[in-house]
Amino acid sequence: MKKLDIYRNDNYILNDAFDQAVMNLHILKKQHDYKSFVICGSEAGNGATTVAINLAAALASSGWKTVLIDGDMRKKNRYKRLNENVSEGLSDYLMDRVTLDRIICETTTENLSYIPCGELIDNPVRLLCSNKMNVVRDELANTYDFIIFDMPAINAAMDAKVIAVNVDAVILVSAIGETTKRGVIEAANALKDVKANLIGTIVNKLTMEEYIEQNVDYDYFQNERYAKKIKK
């Protein structure tokens, strides 16, 4: 099987933001042995898939053996940038059509593997609740340092909640100027209701100005003005 193209973004500002997330996940792994995470939007269209891909690639680039799982079995493959050339995936394994090793794809990013969603399923909740899903988690936990589940938005389907209660932690994604305050609160409460371990939110789609406002020294090691200050 041809390797799937997953390249880490070469924008140092974007990479710096994801490096901060990698640091936090590394600390959680060190302190609590966390390795499995659900990434999902507070509302549909928040860009959770982009965040999941970049986060998984950043973890892999840090030397951690990482697997990214597309858990959205409701969306057709033609709408997914990584699934265009794959025909089998998670749903096929859960329906006993293929073995687990058949659906794990190698990628062009070292240390990063990918599991596609597989055949479109109208209502995948029963598959996600099956014992075979437990087998997937256990098998991958024995092989990988980090397991990243890319799941549909909390308010779009029950799917994310099903997986959220069976992983170490959940990260919500919101989009600046798009996600409503009510949407974030409802998503957080939905996870709280099922006792999922929500550890935080990643705010997506910030403009450069908004990012600078939140991270004043974002270019500390890139900007010459800081170097000039320490010269004698």
Reported for the largest beta sheet, the result is: 7 strands, mixed
Strand content: 15-25%
Give the CATH class. Alpha Beta
Overall mean confidence score, pLDDT = 84
Rg from Cα? 18 Å
Order of strands in the sheet with most strands: 3-4-2-5-1-6-7
Q: Would you give the CATH topology?
A: Rossmann fold
Number of helices: 10
Shape: globular
Outline:
The protein has 232 residues and is α/β, with parallel strands linked by helices. Helix content is 41%, strand content 16%.
What does this structure look like?
The protein has 232 residues and is an alpha/beta fold. The protein has a single domain (17-230), classed as P-loop containing nucleotide triphosphate hydrolases (Rossmann fold). It contains ten helices and seven strands. It has helices at residues 12-32, 48-61, 90-94, 100-103, 125-128, 131-143, 159-164, 181-193, 208-214, 224-230; strands spanning 36-41, 66-70, 105-106, 112-115, 146-151, 169-175, 198-204. A seven-stranded mixed β-sheet has the order 3-4-2-5-1-6-7, sandwiched between helices. The longest helix is centred in the N-terminal third of the chain and has 21 residues, at 12-32. It is globular and about 40 Å long. It starts with 11 loop residues before the first helix and ends with a helix.
